[in-house]
Specification:
- The protein has 221 residues and is of the alpha/beta class.
- It is built from eight helices and seven strands; from the N terminus they run H-E-H-E-H-E-H-H-E-H-E-E-H-E-H.
- It is elongated.
Length: 221
Amino acid sequence: AMNDLADVAAEFRARHGRRLRVATKYTHLTTDFFGRHGADDCELVQSFGATEGAPGSGAAEAIVDITSTGATLAANNLRIPEDGVILKSEAQLAASLKADWSDKARAAAKFILTRLEAYQIAKKQIKITLRSSPGMLSPKLKPQKEIKELKKEYDAKLVDMFTGSSDQGSSYTFVLPTNQQAAFMDDMISNQLFEIGEVSKPDFLYFQRCEMLERLLGRLV
């Protein structure tokens, strides 16, 4: 915890005869944050490159840096103290409603927003494909009935369907909320509606409608 940093820094100085070094690009934020936690006996080292590599190279004993998933920190055997987050931030996309939105500008907005919305949708969805081998009658789903019930109960959207002859087999592909996966598959297994079930995580899920784009275009003057 940050409350222990002052003691660690003092012990480090007593043992090594120098102050504990902290590599960072954010000297002002770090100075203020450390000061609030009484960790003044540290030496800030200006970082101009990959800050996470400073401890491994011997340039510093600790770092202050930005992180998203924490994977890079873990790869360098670093961890964040429980109360060691200085601030949280996020990127925001802003559009001027009074700008001259030419056809080219609108096309660019469509390209960006459809991709962004597809990414955000995919983060909360999974894709499940139910397959049957040749000669097997299932999946025995009927679009007019069972698929509508799946949509109502699990918010499962049918995105692809192949119903071949008895020697070709069949397949149904759905996308549905991640938290519905277990209940959906339990239902399919209990009713013997497939032979093989494949679950995957899509990176992007595009639909014909893009609500982000519609909201923007609806507000343009």
